[in-house]
Inverse folding.
């Protein structure tokens, strides 16, 4: 199967939000989501997914709720003191 690389520019905050959602829901980066899940949906349906329309206030409320959800999870301020190697080990230990 031939493949092709694609890319796009996006507002940093919007991309970070989309990346977080893709990681939370699919365990993929947003780029991986676009290259697999989204393209599969388009290929199977033969059309682009329908866009949901929301007003700006709803979008801000949803984004704030998402961020608050992450903030309410357990935290460890000692993480800020870890070296790069310590962080790699910490992340690796979650998947061991």
């Amino acid at each position: 199967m031939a493949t092709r690389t694609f890319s796009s520019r996006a507002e940093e905050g919007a991309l970070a939000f989309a990346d977080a959602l893709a990681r939370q829901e699919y365990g993929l980066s947003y780029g991986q989501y676009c290259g697999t899940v989204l393209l599969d949906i388009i290929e199977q349906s033969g059309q682009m997914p329908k866009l949901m329309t929301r007003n700006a206030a709803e979008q801000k409320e949803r984004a704030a709720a998402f961020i608050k959800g992450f903030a309410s999870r357990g935290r460890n301020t000692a993480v800020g003191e870890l070296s790069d190697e310590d962080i790699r080990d910490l992340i690796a230990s979650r998947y061991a």
The CA atoms of residues 85 and 91 lie 10 Å apart. The radius of gyration is 17 Å.
